[in-house]
User: What shape does this take?
Amino acid sequence: MSTQVQTWHPLIGTPSALHGTCAMALAAEVFVEHDHFDAEPCYDWSAGKIINRHLRDDLHIADHEPVTYDTPGIDEDPSGCAVSLASGSVDGKPSRIQSILESLDYDCSGMSRHQLDWTFLAHHVELAYRRYHAHDASTRSVTENMRLELSEFEKAEALAIYANSFGIRGIMGPSGHACDVLLSTSNCGGISMTLLMLAQVAGIEARMINTINHSTVELKVGGRWLWSDNIVGSRALILASYQEMLADPHDIVCMTPLELKYHTDLVPHYRAPYNFSTTRRWKGPGWKPESATDDTNNGIGYSLAYTPETAAALYPGREQVFHVPKSEKPMLALNKLGGWIYASVDGSQGISMRKVFHIGECADNPVRSACIRVFVNTDANEDDYTATLNGSPLKCEGKRSCYEHMHAIYFAINPTALQIGLNECIISTAANSSAQLLVYPDVLENSPAPVLDQKIELTHDSFSCNEISQSQQF
Assistant: This one.
């Protein structure tokens, strides 16, 4: 008797006409309820802390080619990086940025709009270093190459201080591109984009963190992520990562009372997506041709939520602590959805997709209950969906609404069926049904491939960009 070999295929898609093809993940979240909390809460809204025992070390953030001086702008290539409003000429006259650079004796002949932006940013990097040097009490000679005399930390701090100095101080311009912000002012989003771009031009690795109500940046200094907030009066570069701040803001001695209030009362209620689209394309709200369509909200869909499964990819080698709201039991959601864009995969002819998740050793605080919720179309019939875990069938617990406007089918998981290491959950739809399964861009390019015996490639027309309410933390 021959045994049929299952063939799994990657699911790929192009969420936007302005982005390349990327791997997609099944929109399914696994919840595990532990026996007890591991520590007392440090927030008024929190019921307690849970140490993450489910670190998955095999997930890594894919490397992408960064923006450089020679990267084409969006005016040259539909998939190019955003360019500033100020780099565009008006009535055939030199652009505002070109005029400024030429007044400073830069030769702008033959420069593209992006190259004008890059040169303008490089000039401001030098200005940031000079301003920092001028206020530095240490005795150092003022030379053209003073940037070479600043330490790695000093360079990062100089850029953070400089970017923050352009915070709202008048009427905001129509663009959040760094060059436009440097010629006017902006809110936290524009200031964060400015710091990110300045850092990239200066050769410092950086990433944005966009919550539902605030934007900040992390800079990699000496192999360690340091967090830069832009709330008025705050220290520009904090000697801790965003993850360390989330664990307990009161442990960060340099945080101001205003920052403590803001980050203990408002921000921690929301999962924090790390925006990786900006590492390869400056997808800030700068200028773009009217013919260009970007249905991923300027690239914000390429993001990664800080969750128990993704924690090791974001912060390798660190202990991770997660907070649980008072309304929840000691429960963790291992793999929250990444980003705000998603697509529907047609399951009307019968399809199987899988979600792989990791369970760690937790004998000291065992899992008491678990479930998986699979995001589906609004008019889905729960009877059209089945699920297995490691080959054993799961009991369907019905369809519920979540994230305000989305719907999911819930399947109960018996904790005894969980195995230490990788667990495989397969979701199948019935043939001749109206079933659909939701997917989203997978920054981690998670393996193994999610689709059984079918090759599916989604186009950008398949995607929507409805924002998910993030009121529910882990």
Remarks:
- The longest strand covers residues 367-376.
- Residues 85-279 form a domain with the C8orf32 fold fold (CATH 3.10.620).
- The chain has two domains: 8-59+320-464, 85-279.
- Residues 192 and 216 are 5 Å apart (CA to CA).
